[in-house]
Amino acid sequence: MVRRRAWRWLGVVAAVAAALVLVVRPPRPRLLPPVARQPPLWRGAYHVHSTQSDGSGTPEAIAAAAAGASLDFVILTDHGDGTRTPAGPRIINGVLLIDAVEISTDDGHYVALDLPPVPYPLAGEGRAVAEDVRRLGGMGLIAHPDSLRSSLAWHDPSVAADGFEWINGDSTWRTASTAQLLVKLLAYPLNRAGTLAGLARYPAALFAERDQPARGPQLALAAVDAHARIGWQRSADPIDGGRTLSEFPSYRASFGTFGVVVPWLDGTPSGDARRDAVAVLAAIRHRVTWSAVFSMADPVWLSFDLIGPATMARPGRDADGEATVVVKSNGPAGASIRVLRNGHVYREAQASALSAPLPADEPGSVYRAELWLPARRGWPALPVAISAARGHNLPDVTETGAGYRVPGTGHLAPGATTTNASADDVDIRGWHVEHDPRSSGMLRPASPGTRGEATLRLAGGERVSQFSALVGVLAPPPAGATGLELELSASAAMRLSVQWREPRSGEGLRWRHSCYVDGTRRVVALPMNEFRPIRPATGRVPLDRIHALLLVMDTVNARPGDSRTVTVHAARWTAGR
């Protein structure tokens, strides 16, 4: 009797579980046939980790998984500081692999695409890393900017990046509630990619924040952030290491969720890895790619342009004056086109194409297009495709951070003026060198055209917080000073940490900024309100109490054993914004 009752209850539980699986199981992707004038499309995965950092798979295994998911390319973004020589583009199992790097900064993670060899480690403040990536010719994207975990979210909204991740697969499932995850996982064996994508939510607040005229038009990429590993704690960041309990979710499952689509507007793939990699990266750089949710429909075509009467109808162009919004897609019957302006819905139509005029005097705005399909049970509430942004009547975008000019050829940071005409109005009463016990530094004799000069050398071996600094002892600054202007050069390219110090016991209290320096004499403008406190310091720089200026080389942006000669040619206080 007891056994029969137990079997009956098991049958009820199994029936309920089966019914629940049928309810939560997402449908298979909808096949979208091509339409007239649709170019050949390549589907790819962006933001993938391998055994080069914290992923569980080798590049060969990743390529095999991508081939199984019918992808054409994968962009590997293993963690690093840019100094590792990237592997060249290669084709494995018919899949093009492209190397990139995910850089850890003080403000979050920053992905650099198409980055050439770098002269020093990229790290430190997010604005410094973004500036270095751009100066070196790479593309910079903010990774998982709206992550629910503070350690992964982006914390400096002022950084002028080339784009951001509007969705991140790893963050999506790691931050889901346990109840939500358990329910979804019932259907995981039946549709792995659809189940993972079903956890995602539309980031309306993120688009409202990032798509603003002051930022300019940006890429918005769908990032799988695939590691294929889970440890003891689901919420733990894979980069923290620890034991891998399971290769979950698998690379193949992640590759079926969402990704990046590249249109071949000029010809077809050549089969040559380097040529095809150049084409893929150029399409991303020129904002002619789009994100697509592969688990909903595939393949998805979405073309979005702003076309002016005096410009060629060429994809990827922004526009000024009178223009027309033109959106085309292979959306099926019932599909809708939605155009966003500055992150909010501007136009919407139930159609696979849309055209709308923009008056010449329209305020400067950022536009983006989305393709939505009729809702189906089990699908996430997401558009099936999101375009890169386009700009209309946009002003010049001003970047924050250290401003630069070569002496006599440029201007100070916006709104800044020198406090007086003197070229040496920072009263530096003496120079000396400070360093850790194993590193070294040597003052060099003053010469015409220099205020101070020193050779700084970091001790070799392991990184153990080596530093060497040229230190100037300061007289009180003039009233009204709001910034510092230094004319600097160095024996080789470097990122120099510029610090203020307030006298206290021990090392004192310090505030920091940084700037790029090389063999060219250049003027660096450093606003006081952009210096950040170094713990235990807090708040803004107390100008009335600082007593020293430190020009520091340390292992944030230098390798153990590195040596540089740093020269200060001039130092001026500035006043203004």
Layout: helices, strands, pairs:
Elements: H1 2-24, E1 30-31, E2 41-48, H2 59-68, E3 73-79, E4 90-92, E5 95-105, E6 108-113, H3 126-135, E7 139-142, E8 163-168, H4 169-174, H5 178-185, H6 192-197, H7 204-210, E9 219-223, H8 251-255, E10 259-263, H9 273-285, E11 290-292, E12 297-298, E13 302-307, E14 323-329, E15 336-341, E16 344-349, E17 353-358, E18 365-372, E19 385-387, E20 390-392, E21 403-405, E22 416-418, E23 428-435, E24 440-443, E25 452-457, E26 467-474, E27 483-490, E28 494-502, E29 509-517, E30 522-527, E31 532-534, E32 548-554, E33 563-576
Parallel strand pairs: 1-12, 2-3, 3-5, 7-8, 8-9
Antiparallel strand pairs: 2-10, 4-5, 5-6, 6-7, 10-11, 11-19, 13-14, 14-17, 15-16, 15-18, 18-19, 18-20, 21-30, 22-33, 23-26, 24-25, 25-33, 26-32, 27-30, 27-33, 28-29, 28-32, 29-31
Key descriptive features of the protein:
34% strand; 15% helix; seven-stranded antiparallel sheet; 15-stranded mixed sheet; alpha+beta; 33 strands
In short:
The protein has 9 helices and 33 strands. The protein has 577 residues and is of the alpha+beta class.
Polypeptide structure, described:
The protein is α+β, with helices and mostly antiparallel strands. Helices cover 15% and strands 34% of the residues. A hairpin with a 2-residue loop joins strand 15 and strand 16. Residues 12-20 and 404-424 have low confidence and may be disordered.
